[in-house]
Design brief:
Length: about 200
């Protein structure tokens, strides 16, 4: 039974489950293959078999979480926010000047550029390593990279950007109000901030 737990549920058995399955095997009311099948067909077992269990991916990429976030941001669980921008904000597109907050390896600005959502991008990150990777991947896209920190924001221009995109970075801000104020100040009066 312990080996089946490890094989199908990737963990040690809890006492109740161990006792239950062991007693069923001893009483011959279940066979070892039936126990195996029950574990595979359990919600926990299904989560592992279809890779929806959090150990195989980030929690915010789990299907249930993605559908929930999509529903909140686009009102359709099957449409991601980045694909909804062209519909919802079409009159603003393409944004002339775009700021990417905490760009990491540059996937977001490359995606926005390739979808025609923005023309010129400024993107910053605190990590020189990520910025080097982003620069290597930018190809001929109009993207300028620089070092900055969400807790510092010393390198932003006032009223420059038509759009600012923050993807999973604000939780790193020690003073969110201050960071948001500085980001807001760098927007043009009709600019938009997108937070994911």
């Amino acid at each position: 039974v312990k080996k089946l737990y490890e094989k199908h549920l990737h963990r040690q058995p809890d006492k109740t489950g161990l006792y239950y399955f062991t007693s069923k095997l001893k009483n011959k009311t279940l066979t070892i293959s039936q126990v195996s099948k029950l574990m595979m067909e359990s919600e926990e077992g299904k989560a592992f078999s279809n890779f929806s269990h959090y150990t195989d991916k980030y929690w915010n990429n789990l299907d249930t979480v993605v559908k929930y976030k999509n529903k909140l941001s686009t009102d359709n669980e099957h449409v991601q926010w980045i694909d909804d921008i062209s519909n919802r904000f079409n009159e603003y597109l393409p944004f002339e000047n775009v700021l990417i907050v905490g760009c990491g390896n540059g996937w977001l600005e490359r995606t926005l550029h390739d979808k025609g959502i923005g023309k010129k991008f400024d993107a910053f990150d605190i990590s020189e390593k990520y910025l080097e990777e982003a620069k290597e991947k930018k190809e001929d896209r109009n993207i300028h990279y620089f070092i900055d920190d969400i807790n510092n924001l010393q390198n932003l221009s006032m009223k420059k950007y038509d759009a600012i995109f923050n993807f999973a970075i604000l939780h790193h801000a020690t003073e969110i109000d201050s960071a948001m104020q500085k980001l807001s100040n760098s927007l043009k009066p009709t600019g938009l901030i997108f937070n994911e």
